[in-house]
């Protein structure tokens, strides 16, 4: 049975990786509140509403698969399966479609048609339904007379019952009428007894199915349950019956049989199809109304809970956690979080990152990083790779140690990886190279405990841009990584020790291609957008739509490039 991860990712516009993570957690028996609160790293921080929608849709799709298997088994047991039926079942998107396909093969209770079949009238019904102009049903009916069928009229009546049930079981006919009922059906209510009640306004009430609000459906249902109302779905019976007759009766070419088929079609609609569709549509309206009521209640409750409980007071909130550590947030009297996380880079912090005060070289972080950059100049990737470091990542090279004592092992590895991934994108000798870093807003007030750090997933977007003397882009590369950071009790943020791969490095392993409308991976979308920047200056780039809706960009990139755009503009603004 398929797990439907790709379909859900497309329908809900979510990452395939995160959808698969959510499915795995649901299948493991975890509850939606637990997943939403304690498994954010696996689901991409989906909230409980998104997870609940995903879970409900997953349950429906799996129920659909199970029903398809049951129907397939039942039809095969009757030796009635055909390639056309298999294709129809495989293409069915809803349970209603599956049931319509199965209806002709579904074991039925005793009906007028089953009685007629038992009397041997099926061949007469089949011949009549073909509507051959040369076929005379009145004459043919005389061949089917027996003790249970005394005359031709009884034979034709039985054949008509069989034809009516065949028409009622036709999936295309029901689908056409279902659309008609949704478009032109009316919800109608009348009083069930002569008593005053809170439902007086509905004692003679009519409203279109397509427009009636959910709260009114629920009110009508309550009135019917309490015995004050009779509720029904009304349509123009003559027009609806005419649709059925038009689909099956060939009045101009069907000869004498056409009149019998037309009568059977009208009987099928009034006796079999309308009551079935009425029940189906009412159940659908009630389910949709109930779901809408829950949504409204949830939103009202959310607004109530978001009201400040202590106006004008500073409040500290604690969220105890075993796996991810304890979270602490402080909110001032205006509702503003007062413990923001500083997302500046060490170079951007400058003197705010006081390394010079504790460094034996009396140099700040930027100065030591520049010394490492100078050491790199003129070296090949193999030479850089051979740089030895100690257990703390600090260089073992004597010349380098004279100007740099910070840990450089990760920068060494990053330089080697950058060389291995280098591309020729159009930059010319003499162009200026700039780097921009955009860090998405981090969760507020997050902190660990004395014995265990808290974990949080960051979103870091990088852009490298080359510009000519006119400050126009000659090439650009955009990338993104989402490392899991550790937050200590004092709020210090630390990067993971294990390797962190960017989306470009992950390539096809990122798993976006199947969920992309263009059939592209993330790195291909990013490359398309970056290529579009060539020849543009910062003002022109700043005016580009960040949501990928520009007509010229749709064929190149459909991902949101908000963070990439910010990173590029930061790079171009670097002095």
Structure description:
- This protein has 575 residues and is mainly α.
- Helices cover 47% and strands 11% of the residues.
- It has helices at 5-12, 16-27, 32-38, 40-43, 48-77, 83-91, 95-102, 112-118, 122-130, 137-141, 152-168, 171-184, 214-225, 237-248, 256-305, 346-349, 365-376, 381-385, 398-401, 409-420, 503-506, 522-532, 538-542, 562-573, and strands at residues 186-191, 204-208, 229-234, 315-319, 327-331, 432-439, 454-457, 460-467, 473-481, 484-487, 493-494.
- It starts with a helix and ends with a helix.
- The strands form four sheets. It has a three-stranded antiparallel sheet with strand order 2-1-3. The chain has a three-stranded antiparallel sheet with strand order 6-8-9.
- The chain contains 24 helices and eleven strands.
- α7 (95-102) packs across α12 (171-184), α13 crosses α15 (256-305) and α14 packs across α15.
- The longest helix is centred in the middle third of the chain and has 50 residues, at 256-305.
